[in-house]
User: Fold this.
Amino acid sequence: MSALPLAVTRRHRRSVRHTLDLRVSPYAYVAPFFLLFCAFGLFPLVYTAWVSLHEWTLLSDVQEFVGLGNYTTLLADGYFWNATFNTLSIGVLSTVPQLLLAVWLAHLLNRRLRFQTLFRISLLLPNVTSVVAVVVIFSQLFGRDFGMINWILSWFGVGNIDWAAGTASSHVALSVMIMWRWTGYNALIFLAAMQAVPRELYEAATLDGAGGFKQLRSITIPMIRPTIIFVVIVSTIGAMQIIAEPMLFGQSSGGGGGVATGGPDRQFQTLALFVYEQGFANSTFDFGYASAASWLMFLAVVVVAGINFLITRRVKGGIV
Assistant:
């Protein structure tokens, strides 16, 4: 008589374990990520906000609370606004042509071609190349006296251009480096989205006499619009964080100035480079001022992400 209640108890225990496994195990699987994020992402973010409210330097043991004083000084700093302009300029010059070229490359690779796998793998090679090697090579290509770019331009009667010396020329040179590294990577993202577009739409468009460009404009782009928005926002956020290219470009080109100044006239100093200069390159090691600049960058990223969410939701609603 006691075997029946015992069997019921065992089934109940198995049912409870099964329920806990279904409900609790997913949280256990994702817990390591959130623990690492809190330790290396959230805590530094909050601590940086606290530091930005102080006069915090490595040369003093006393950290005086100044409230929003660092932000007030920062908003009146001409170097900060110069870095902001440079960041936006380089970002636009590199992002817009890069995304247009990436869509076009993805459209070509979406067709039936020989050696498709080889071409797709080749698109990733620039992205996996060391940024140091990329900047060193492109600095030689954009060299004033013996660079290949100036040599080609001389065929058209253009004199030698000191690419690192001018604001516009340095922005163009840096934009070309960034485009070369990231165009193929974004093209593969677009290609993955294009693979999900029904082939029947292209076949019907072909029967109606639509060419490749017409199909790209009327079918492909509308169907992958959410992916385009995602890539645009991610590329924009990446453009706001550019630091390695201008830092190495200033050293490789021999344009003068410090490591973090972005040239002698700060002609290509970005926001990330400005933060690095204030926190680590200056003799005062002003962490409070650098933290304030970092938080303004963070707020800009949040605004861009919010706009991305609103636009994506609106586009999804329009497609449905």
In short: Residues 316-320 have pLDDT under 50 and may be disordered. Residues 3-51 form the longest helix (49 residues). The CA atoms of residues 12 and 18 lie 10 Å apart. The first strand starts at residue 54 and ends at 55.
